[in-house]
Amino acid sequence: MVKNVIYFSLCILFCSHFLMAQSVSELGDSFKRTQNLTWKEIQELADKENKAILIDCFTTWCKPCHKMDKETFSDSTVQSLLQQNFICTKVQMDKTSKDKHYIKSWYKTAEQMSVAFDIAAYPTLVIMNSKGKIVNKIVGFHNSTNLLAKLNASISLKETGKTPDSTYLMYLKQFKSGILHKDSLFMLFFLTKNHNDLENSVTLKDSLLKSLRINQSFNFSLPDAIRFVSTYLKDLPEFESLFVRNERSIDSSIKLSGFASYIVDSIIQSRYAMPFIESLGIDNGEPQWQSFEDSISKNFDIKYTHRNLLWAKIRWHEGQAHFNKNYKGHQEYKQLFFDYIDIYSKSIIPGCGTLGDLGGHINHMAWEAIFKRSDATEVEYTTTLQLLRNVLEIYKLKSGRYPLLVIDTYANLIYKYAYFYKSSEERKLMFAQAMDWESLAVQLADQSYKNLQLQFARSYMKMLDHVPTW
After folding, report:
1. Cβ(332)–Cβ(349) below 8 Å
2. Residue 140 is part of a domain; what is its CATH number?
3. Cis peptide leading into 123, omega within 30 of 0?
4. Under a CB-based contact definition with an 8 Å cutoff, are residues 178 and 162 in contact?
5. How many CB atoms sit inside 10 A of residue 65's CB?
6. In what order do the strands lie in the sheet with 134-139?
7. Residues 149, 28: one domain?
8. pLDDT digits (tens, 9 = 90+) for 167-207
9. Are 124 and 57 in contact (CB under 8 A)?
10. Which one, of 449, 463, 354, lies nearest residue 405 by Cα?
11. Residue 398 predicted with pLDDT over 80
12. Is the pTM of this model over 0.85?
């Protein structure tokens, strides 16, 4: 079975081009009528016809977006429902050199929507009532059956939406009058996002960024201020050192030990590690790790340097294992990973930090360096299985469901571990456990992920026959 774990950063590194978005004309009349309208004109049209608004937020590089265009939006039943009940528009969230004038005219609106609607994955369908209040968000690929169910549920809500409460309106009035205390602006910013207030959210964001750049400081005792600054650090590079110098104050304020370190790690990884890795090609030999280490140590202490050197090495090995047919560094790859987890496991931050973020990387290492290899030790199996189980539980806690690829890896790893290391009675019990997990993967894949479902089903049948899945 072939595992396709795709990481956006690695796609930037190794892919030479992106798929271009399907033209609106191929999507049916529901999107055609807004093809040349502004956002204001679309809102006015929805209000005039008393219809909900459906905003398809997509990017040109997003494969699930293209799949949804071709398979879901082209469905005649979906088209009929959209035409009768929605004013539909597509908003491109990225920028390319091939963008036409109309797409460029939406750049600013797209940026505002990304902030106000908390767009974190693509495609995201934002559904608003005719008065401009969000009533639903539909994230990820959905086939026509699933989308119809979600759209029908949204239709029943189209006259509802969050009504601003009196406290929010009071703070907003004080802000517009210029009398709201500066420390309360951070709180108000997050309130605007909770109320889906696009215009005021963007206004406050710009105002806060401008103020922070002028004052070069913020109140560490305010959790909302910390949340804001850490969210927009890419716009405030001058504040990076504050998270290094004030770790204890920041962690104490936000009541989350290790949070400041997590933010600093994110800075190092985005500013130093990923550009270094992206500058390397495939099969070009071992990178000059000393020069990378030196570049970090000039600005950060040994704790950050060591941790992020390990992280960068893991990411490099990850890319080589996935794309380089001549790669033979699996042993070093898994050892680096175990070193990273062993040394820094105590700093894992439930819900926002290390293990949650490493979920995809743990899954990739488990598949490439443990499951697909014949030299994994029993300790490596048990350690990796525990890591995968923790990842499953964290994802379930955060999103309400287990991630498909991690379920499949976990099931196959249980099966292979039992196959080689357990006695007949224990093996029988662990085979049953593995089949339960693989069966769950088949069920969760359903018709939305037919190819994966087929792969999972093949593995399940092999487990049923007690033959190798590798």
Report:
1. no
2. 3.40.30.10
3. yes
4. no
5. 25
6. 86-92, 52-58, 124-128, 134-139
7. yes
8. 788 888 888 888 888 888 999 998 888 777 777 888 898 89
9. yes
10. 449
11. no
12. no
